[in-house]
Amino acid sequence: MGLFDKLKRAFSGPEQAEDEEKEKLEEQDKAQEQKEKEETEEETPDQADKSVDDEKQTQIEDETTKDQAEPETKEDLKKQARTSDDETSDTKEIKDAEEKKETEEDRYDQGLKKSRQGFGAKINALLANFRHVDEDFFDDLEETLIESDVGFETAVKISDELQDEVKLRNAKSKSDVSDAIVEKLVDLYEKEGQEEDNTLHFAKNGPTVFLFVGVNGVGKTTTIGKLAHKYQQEGKKVLLAACDTFRAGAIEQLDEWAQRVDVDIVKKPAQSDPAAVVFDAVKRAQTEDYDVLLVDTAGRLQNKVNLMNELAKIKRVIKREIPDSPQEVLLALDATTGQNALTQAKQFKDVTEVSGIVLTKLDGTARGGIVLAIRNELHLPVKLVGLGEQMDDLRDFDAEKFVYGLFKDLVAQTAK
Ligand SMILES: Nc1nc2c(ncn2[C@@H]2O[C@H](COP(=O)(O)OP(=O)(O)OP(=O)(O)O)[C@@H](O)[C@H]2O)c(=O)[nH]1
Ligand SMILES: [Mg+2]
Question: 229, 295, 324, 337: least buried by Cβ within 10 Å?
């Protein structure tokens, strides 16, 4: 099933969702019944032989004459207590897992709220003025898509393909046209991403090194802090390298994160050679068995050439010490800067081998369409997304959740 069909199915009426919920509950009930049955079978033959009435009677007596209970009955009570403890912890686990799932989805949902509203409002405005599907309509559509940051090439491509599609389907009503637009966007996005690897790669042996690059203010240091927190929570041994020795206060900022999330850091005085910092960090990561080394770098130097040379040097040092490293070179892009982010990415891609994108500040933008442009025009996988400033506000990129968060209002409308 294509992504668009999945989305549409998710909105195809409350009855279906209710049915699915019912099925899930029934399955849980069955599992619980089975468990209870197994536990009863474990009981001694004497106890198992007791009639149901007897059991009821014993329970009533237990409740009324607790103090005089026979040792046997006490055992029963203990057993009961254990069973109910097991039940409580089982139900708690299920509840926790469900709550976690909900919060994860909510996080994406909230983080994309502005984009969804912005995008939805633009498409709705376009459709509000819609009279015929003619040249003007497709010009307006192209403009709307460009404004939503899906990227110029993507906007033109969608508009062109839609002209044929609309004719083919003989789409005339607003909902037919809106349906066709969203379907095209989602399908194109899915098609372009088929070969894409959105996972972060780890070393098979020894420390994994992630190098963070990107212009100033995009969120490199914050992302490192959040990721360090995540890995620390997972029980990994994490080390940070403060290689932004240029900007005043940059070392202190990373140091603060290290303290906040309780991980170690390698730092040298301001203006030291960042290559020397990374050298020390790699050595320490190797000799002290760290699992992950996260390397922060400067976003701005005296000029762009210096910056790119410095990044190349840092990377060379890492590679020399651990040949398969860095496992990831992650380019941080600020989603609120729209097309500017694409230009930055192109520049970095030309000089460094970027392995993935961290798309930050998605919570603060109505321009989530940039994800489509990154995939369709840059062909770089988004691996992480920043959905806020706090240490828990980082998520692995999930294309389906993302597309769902971006288009759900429009798909919901067309599914009605
Ligand atoms: N709302 C929001 N703010 C973010 C996010 N990520 C980072 N920020 C904020 O963006 C600002 C800049 O973040 P930094 O991590 O300092 O950026 P940087 O790339 O290290 O910048 P330089 O060190 O100057 O190169 C800070 O105020 C962060 O709190 C995010 O996902 N959402
Ligand atoms: Mg920084």
Answer: 324
